[in-house]
TrEMBL record:
Species: Alcaligenes pakistanensis
Transmembrane segments: none
UniProt lineage: Bacteria, Pseudomonadati, Pseudomonadota, Betaproteobacteria, Burkholderiales
First-listed, main subcellular location of the protein, grouped into a coarse class: periplasm
Protein name per the record: Heparin-sulfate lyase N-terminal domain-containing protein
GO cellular component: periplasmic space
Subcellular location: Periplasm
One MF term in the entry's GO annotations: lyase activity
Length: 517
């Protein structure tokens, strides 16, 4: 069973060295965290993401890999002494996801080192995860909870309830796998980064199921579709599209999936065409999943025009108010950008902004509330259309603006020219604004009804069919229309937003055209 877990690497050895010698925890998202006596008092304890990292035992991964069982036992004993008797109703330490991942690591330790001293602690965790009222059904949390129960049943077979853990874990896992991806192989939680993360989770599930000789029909087909989408949602700069709760990731494929056709496509985009098989076509519509992608070329890195258009809420998890959002990366540069995730602290004003309508390239109504309760097919979506004079055409709709429906067509002529056409139903007399966010490295001007966005080598002109439309430009967070971007957890940078409006009509379009400087 040890082949289910990652092997030791040089980073693990360095982590252990710094942990013991300098009382330093090396982290990806929080920098170096120092502790004095117990690690449970270290780091930004007012940050939910850090609390999750701490209480899910993520910081133990390197210690497990190098096999320092004595140190692991000390740390787990200190956690147990301090937190095991805390009421389960407390968000931390008993966060539903952190609890599952904590048990997962306790199980790994038990399996890898034949360690049985965590019997009672594992029993409490397993029986808690068994409870229906603790189970986060149809989420990435629920997926990990299911996997954790199965692994714990193998790690602690002497626990009387362990057989029930496996039965329930398997039942839930099948349900989670059916829900987590659409029939097109796209993860439903509104984020390319979470899509890649869930491919990793599916791989863990596949390995674990094979170990216990269980084969769920259709899993490998789903993997292939998920990899195909991963290839399309990778930008020409070889990073995943920064959309919704996404941060900076490059795609990768595990060795055991390299035989899938979709894996060869991921290899192509991640290697700038040096390896793998080139995908075909200029665009892909994932209609059931709410994504449209246009890519003008799969060669000649990095000068492609790359457009992503999203409209579809299939899960409330990691949901942002970003239906009808459009992103543009072209000629090796970012143009239309999204806000990002920043963190998971819902009380943080920056996080609140990141999720809001104002953080995206979408219409904005000052007097209309956003519907965050409803979702699913029929609430929002995309479909292919045909429009004379345009090579590629797609239409999205959304009901997230509570008073009516908004429709947006994206019409693409070629790599230098496209149109965004918005129309509105049941918004009579309502003021509307139209926001387009750009990075600070672009200079922006407005003259004679034309907005000009300049880079060192290109200029992008935006014109509208509404001649008297107002224009404003805002930079940074403390604005009527804020604009900041976060491509790394807990880190943000100022950006800028072009705002058109107010507009009172029922339809309007914006033409985007590239020219050489």
């Amino acid at each position: 069973m040890k082949d289910l877990f990652p092997p030791e690497n040089k980073k693990d050895i360095e982590f252990l060295k710094q942990f013991i010698k300098n009382k330093k925890i090396i982290t990806k998202n929080f920098g170096d965290i120092f502790f004095v006596e117990q690690i449970w008092d270290s780091g930004p304890l007012d940050n939910r993401s850090w609390l999750w990292t701490l209480h899910s035992f993520v910081v133990f991964d390197s210690l497990i890999a190098v096999g320092d069982i004595s140190l692991l036992k000390q740390l787990i004993a200190s956690w147990s002494e301090r937190f095991e008797d805390v009421a389960v109703e407390e968000d931390f330490p008993w966060h539903d996801h952190a609890t599952a991942l904590r048990l997962d690591r306790i199980s790994r330790i038990a399996i890898q080192f034949s360690e049985s001293s965590f019997y009672e602690l594992a029993r409490k965790h397993g029986n808690l995860l068994l409870r229906d009222d603790f189970y986060e059904k149809n989420t990435n949390h629920g997926f990990d909870q299911s996997l954790s129960l199965i692994l714990a049943s193998l790690a602690f077979p002497a626990i009387p309830e362990s057989s029930q853990w496996q039965v329930v874990g398997l039942e839930r896992l099948k349900s989670e796998m059916d829900f987590a991806f659409t029939s097109e192989g796209v993860h439903v939680e509104n984020s390319p980064a979470y899509h890649m993360g869930m491919i990793g989770n599916m791989l863990r599930a596949r390995r674990l199921l094979r170990h216990i000789n269980i084969n769920y029909e259709g899993v490998d087909s789903l993997f292939d579709k998920a990899l195909i989408f991963l290839a399309w949602i990778t930008r020409p700069d070889r990073f995943l599209t920064y959309l919704g709760d996404s941060v900076s990731y490059r795609p990768n494929v595990a060795k055991e999936l390299l035989d899938f056709p979709g894996a060869s496509m991921v290899e192509w985009v991640s290697s700038a065409g040096n390896d793998g098989v080139k995908p075909e076509g200029e665009c892909a519509l994932f209609e059931k999943s709410g994504y449209f992608v246009y890519r003008s070329s799969w060669d000649n890195w990095p000068g492609h025009t790359y457009i992503v258009f999203k409209s579809g809420f299939l899960s409330g998890y990691h949901r942002q108010d970003d239906d009808l959002n459009i992103l543009l990366h072209a000629y090796g540069e970012d143009w239309l950008i999204d806000s990002g995730m920043y963190n998971h602290n819902q009380k943080d004003p920056i996080r609140q902004y990141m999720r809001s309508v104002k953080a995206h390239n979408v219409p904005y109504f000052p007097d209309i509330k956003i519907d965050r309760k409803n979702l699913g097919i029929g609430f929002s979506g995309l479909k292919a259309i045909e429009v004379d004079g345009w090579k590629h055409s797609v239409e999205g709709f959304t009901s997230m603006y509570s008073s009516g429906q908004v429709f947006r067509k994206v019409l693409i002529k070629d790599k230098n020219s496209f149109r965004v056409f918005d129309s509105f139903s049941d918004f009579d007399g309502k003021k509307k604004y139209f926001m387009f966010h750009f990075p600070l490295d672009k200079s922006i001007g407005f003259e004679n009804g034309v907005v000009s966005i300049f880079s060192k080598t290109k200029k992008l002109l935006i014109t509208s069919n509404s001649n008297d439309l107002g224009f404003a430009l805002y930079k940074g967070f403390g604005q009527v229309f804020p604009s900041v971007v976060s491509n790394k957890i807990n880190h943000k940078e100022d950006s800028q937003v072009v705002v058109f409006g107010p507009f009172l009509g029922d339809s309007i379009f914006f033409d985007f055209c590239f020219f050489d400087r």
